[in-house]
Amino acid sequence: MKASDIMTFGVATTSPEASLTDAIRTMRRHRISGLPVVDPEGRLLGIISEGDYFRKSSGYDPDVLSGGAAVNCRATLDERKVADIMSRTPVAIDIDTLVEEASALMVRQGLKRLPIIKDDCVVGMLSRADILHAIVD
Questions:
Q1: DSSP output for the chain
Q2: pLDDT at residue 65 above 50?
Q3: Which tens digit of pLDDT belongs to each residue from 93-107?
Q4: I need a labelling partner for 14 at 20 to 30 A (CA). Which of 20, 91, 92, 133 fits?
Q5: Are 6 and 133 in contact (CB under 8 A)?
Q6: Could you give the percent of the chain with pLDDT greater than 90?
Q7: Cα–Cα distance between 9 and 88 in angstroms, integer?
Q8: Cα(33)–Cα(48) distance, integer angstroms
Q9: How far apart (Å, rounded) are the C-alpha atoms in residues 20 and 24?
Q10: Contact 125, 114 (CB under 8 A)
């Protein structure tokens, strides 16, 4: 079975110039925890995930939900760009990669999702959930 057999086509993406607020809203709207970061032609530049925010954002305050800290945090999210905290060396696979290879790569690298590339452009995503659903279906 190939990645193209079980992947999610037409995934949501973001640009490096987008605000962190916009990226978070896109993730929420699509009920996902990470987005490929692409250039105007759809070529993969990086990945941004909820984890990147918690690990890399200098504006993150663990007490953000108490008192007035949420207002300051929101201002930081509006000002900062995806490029500021995205992972710039994304691991991606070709659309014809075997699911077994993709799964092994995800385990070795500790990844939750893999962008799928065809002709140098992002065409979809393969998530751990996609693999699990394929196993039980």
A1: -BHHHHSEES---B-TTSBHHHHHHHHHHHT-SEEEEE-TT--EEEEEEHHHHHHH-TT--TTTTSTTHHHHHHHHHHHSBHHHHSBSS---EETT-BHHHHHHHHHHHT-SEEEEEETTEEEEEEEHHHHHHHHH-
A2: no
A3: 999 999 999 999 999
A4: 133
A5: yes
A6: 66
A7: 22
A8: 9
A9: 6
A10: yes
From 3.40.50.150, 3.10.580.10, 3.40.605.10, 3.40.50.300, which CATH number describes the 3-136 domain? 3.10.580.10
Pairing of strands 113-118, 34-38: unpaired
* The 3-state secondary structure of 123-135, one letter per residue: EEEEEHHHHHHHH
What type of residue is 2? K
